[in-house]
Write a structure and sequence with these properties.
Elements: H1 16-25, H2 30-47, H3 51-65, H4 71-77, H5 80-93, H6 101-107, H7 109-113, H8 118-131, H9 135-148, H10 153-165, H11 169-182, H12 187-199, H13 203-232, H14 255-258
Helix pairs in contact: 1-2, 2-3, 3-5, 8-9, 8-10, 9-10, 10-11, 10-12, 11-12, 12-13
Length: 265
């Protein structure tokens, strides 16, 4: 069993990459480092709304727990059963036509209660508030998501969307660029950055951002189709390489409404 102090502390703040790095540095056994690697990938998949990948990484994480003597410590910090319930709750509401915040909160309960998925659950709640015109609660939810997970680039994008709707175009640009600094291939941030730039009369930059977003969206849609086909054939769990997440993120959430501005006034 490896020395717990070498890698367990970051798990308390859900810093899976740091835990993985410290485990490697401490010479931890291969099954432990593999489990932590899967936890990193799971966390990234949840941020990306890529639930098929999240379940695949979770399956592999559970298998790695069976092979390491550090399983009790990992289980205490990241219970695979609770994670499965949380990811499933997020997946079940994704794309569902829910209009009642109380209904959404009830359906998200496993994800809201789990520290590894709470940020994404708050982001989902923020989307519903925003679509319902409740800007104050939407902003609070997106900010709470970021307070829990500073690398949640979609929550950052959503804050930018609120700024864009409010006419604060420079603030929106700043949020989109911060999101892209975390994940440069997120098409939603590129698309809505194009809107913010257009509103500031920076047409050349706007067009470049829009084209980049279109190219990335097309690439990710092709990848989404490939992953769905693999999932249907039961081959997904072995198709995801370690240390590399296949990014699949939907269109920018509130940005579905905002893209109308790209061609409008």
């Amino acid at each position: 069993m490896s020395t717990p102090d070498a890698w367990t502390a970051p798990l308390s703040t859900r810093d899976a990459p740091r835990a993985h790095a410290l485990a490697l540095q401490a010479g931890a056994d291969a099954a432990l480092t593999a489990a932590l690697d899967d936890l990193v990938a799971l966390q990234e998949a949840v941020r990306a709304r890529a639930y098929l990948q999240a379940h695949a990484h979770l399956t592999r994480y559970r298998a790695d727990l069976d092979d390491t003597s550090d399983a009790p410590t990992l289980w205490a910090h990241a219970d695979p059963d609770a994670l499965h319930a949380a990811v499933t709750a997020l997946q079940d509401v994704d794309g569902a036509r829910i209009t009642d915040p109380a209904d959404l909160e009830a359906r998200l309960a496993p994800a809201l209660e789990n520290p590894w998925t709470r940020a994404e659950a708050l982001n989902v709640q923020g989307v519903l508030y925003a679509l319902g015109g409740d800007v104050t609660d939407a902003r609070a939810a997106f900010q709470a998501a970021l307070d829990l997970d500073a690398r949640h680039y979609r929550a950052l994008t959503n804050l930018g969307n609120l700024d864009l709707e409010a006419g604060a175009y420079a603030d929106a640009e700043r949020q989109y660029r911060a999101a892209l600094a975390l994940h440069k291939d997120y098409p939603g941030a590129h698309h809505n950055l194009a809107v913010a730039l257009r509103k500031q009369k920076r047409m050349g930059e706007s067009l470049r951002s829009f084209k980049t977003g279109q190219r990335l969206a097309g690439r990710q849609e092709r990848e989404r189709t490939r992953v769905e086909m693999q999932a249907q054939s039961g081959k997904l769990s072995g198709a995801l390489p370690r240390n590399r997440l296949v990014w699949i993120a939907g269109a920018a959430v509130v940005g579905v409404l905002l893209l109308r501005n790209l061609l409008g006034g």
